[in-house]
Design a protein that fits this description.
CATH architecture: 3-Layer(aba) Sandwich
Order of helices and strands: EHEHEHHEHEHEEHHEHE
CATH topology: Rossmann fold
Number of domains: 1
Strand order of the largest sheet: 3-2-1-4-5-6-9
Bound molecules: NADPH dihydro-nicotinamide-adenine-dinucleotide phosphate, 2-hydroxyethylsulfonic acid
Structural class: alpha/beta
CATH class: Alpha Beta
Shape: globular
Distance between the termini: 60 Å
Radius of gyration: 18 Å
Number of helices: 9
C-alpha cells in the first residue's frame, strides 16, 4: 500500500454518488480503504456505502457551499479525519451552446462547482496533509481542458483551471510529501451527458453510440494506479481517451 503505512488509506471522494466517483469508491474498497463519500444525493451514497463492505462515512455535501464544506471536513470522525487521498471529482458540464447563446446560469454552475467547489474542498483538506507530510490530491480534469471543441467554452475553461491548479499546487508543495495529480479523461459513459443535456436521455445516449467510450471503471483504475504507486512517485498529469476518440484539427471556413 502507498505511503508505507500499515493502516488502510483514508480516501475522500467528492461526487461519489455516480459515474467516476462511485467507480473510484468501488476500486479503493477492493483494498480495504476507509472511504468518505460526498455528494448531494444522500440515497445514492447510502446505497453505495451499503454495498462496499469497508468503513465509510457519508457526507451530504454541495461543494458549492463553502461554509458547508468547511463544516463537513472539520466534523469528520477521527477514523476518517486524516485523509490520505482526496479525489476532487464532483462536477460536470452544463449545456453545449456556443458562447454567444450559452446560458450564463450554466456557466456560473460550472464555475461554482468545478472551480470554486474544488478549491473549497482542497483548501479545507490540504493543511492536514501538509501537517502530516503525507497525502495525495487527485483532481479530475478533462481533455476538454487542453483541446477546444465547439460548445466546450466554459466547461473546458474550468478543466484548464483544474490542470493548471494541479501544477501550481505541486509548486507550492515543493519539499512536502504531498502528491498532486491531474487526471484528464476523454469521453466516458456516465451521467455526464444526461446532466450536460439537462435530462434529455436520447441526446445523452447518442453521445456514446457507435464507439466504445471510456468507462467509469477505466478512469477509476487510472486514479487507483496513481494513488498506489510508491510514495515518492508523483504522476503530474495523466490523459486518457477511448482509442476511437481523437483530434479534429483546425477548422477553416472557406468562402
Ligand atoms: P456524473 O454526472 O455521473 O457524476 C458527477 C458527480 O458529481 C455526481 O456524483 C454528482 O453528485 C457530483 N456533483 C455534481 N455537482 C455537485 C455539487 N455541487 N456538489 C457535490 N457533488 C456534485 O459524471 P462523471 O462521473 O462523468 O463526472 C465526474 C467528473 O469527471 C466531473 O468533474 C466531470 O467533469 C469529469 N469528466 C467526465 C468525463 C466524461 O466523459 N464522463 C470526461 C472527463 C472528465 P450529486 O448530483 O449527487 O451531488
Ligand atoms: C468530458 C469529456 O470530451 O465530453 O470532460 O468534454 S468531453
Amino acid at each position: 500500500m502507498a505511503h508505507g503505512s500499515a493502516s488502510p488509506l483514508v480516501v475522500f471522494i467528492t461526487g461519489a454518488s455516480s459515474g467516476f466517483g462511485a467507480a473510484i469508491a468501488r476500486r479503493f474498497a477492493t483494498v480495504g480503504a476507509r472511504l468518505v463519500l460526498a455528494a448531494r444525493r444522500h440515497d445514492r451514497l447510502e446505497a453505495l456505502a451499503g454495498e462496499l463492505g469497508v468503513p465509510t462515512h457519508v457526507v451530504d455535501l454541495d461543494v458549492q457551499d463553502r461554509a458547508a464544506v468547511e463544516a463537513a471536513i472539520a466534523a469528520l470522525p477521527a477514523d476518517f479525519a486524516a485523509v490520505d487521498v482526496l479525489v476532487n471529482n464532483a462536477g460536470g458540464a452544463h449545456g453545449l451552446e456556443p458562447a454567444q447563446s450559452a446560458d450564463v446560469a450554466d456557466w456560473e454552475t460550472m464555475i461554482d462547482t468545478n472551480v470554486k467547489g474544488l478549491l473549497y474542498v482542497t483548501r479545507a483538506i490540504l493543511p492536514g496533509m501538509v501537517a502530516r507530510d503525507r497525502g495525495h490530491i487527485v483532481n479530475i480534469g478533462s481533455v476538454a481542458g487542453t483541446y477546444p471543441y465547439p460548445g466546450g467554452n466554459v466547461y473546458g475553461a474550468t478543466k484548464a483551471f483544474t490542470a493548471q491548479l494541479s501544477l501550481n499546487l505541486r509548486a507550492d508543495l515543493a519539499g512536502k510529501r504531498v502528491r498532486v495529480t491531474s487526471i484528464e479523461p476523454g469521453m466516458a459513459e456516465t451521467e455526464f451527458s444526461l446532466v450536460r443535456f439537462k435530462g434529455d436521455e436520447e441526446k445523452a445516449k447518442a453521445a456514446y453510440q457507435g464507439f466504445p467510450p471510456l468507462s467509469a471503471d477505466d478512469v477509476a483504475e487510472a486514479v487507483f494506479w496513481c494513488a498506489t504507486l510508491p510514495a515518492h512517485v508523483n504522476v503530474n498529469r495523466l490523459e486518457l481517451m477511448s482509442v476511437m476518440q481523437s483530434f479534429a484539427g483546425f477548422s477553416i471556413k472557406r468562402s
